[in-house]
Amino acid sequence: MCNKILNLRLWENDGKTWNRSVKAKEYDILLVSQFTLYATLQRGNKPDFHKAMPPDKARSLYSKWVELVKKEYSEAKVRDGKFGAMMQVE
To answer: Residues 9-31: pLDDT tens digits?
Structure first.
């Protein structure tokens, strides 16, 4: 996943769309943990998170992933949000 994020071509270059990656453009990256992506809505109208990873394990996995992205790209260009916190991005 780390290499996919760093090399995913989402920006244009010389008029060619989908041609440059965050790495090629030397952009900054903001990584945000998003536990709510692993939920199901199959029963009723409430999201069910029972199959999601427990918070302690998820926090550890997320921290390792952030460190890997920093190592593979640039520690100065990678920032992360606070795990489990309400965040505002300006």
So the answer is: 999 988 888 999 999 999 999 98
For residues 31 and 65, the answer to whether their CB atoms sit within 8 Å is yes
Q: Which residues contact 41 (CB under 8 A, 6 or more apart)?
A: 47, 48
Q: Can 36 be counted among the known catalytic residues?
A: yes
Of the candidates 88, 75, 66, 85, the one whose C-alpha atom is nearest the C-alpha of residue 28 is: 75
- CA triplet 31, 85, 3: central angle to 5 degrees? 15
Place of tokens 């989908």: 18
Q: What are the φ and ψ backbone dihedral angles of 9, each rounded to 5 degrees?
A: -90, 105
Marked catalytic residue, from 36, 42, 45, 88:
36
Distance CA(59)–CA(69), nearest Å, equals: 15
The CA distance from 41 to 15, in Å, is 41
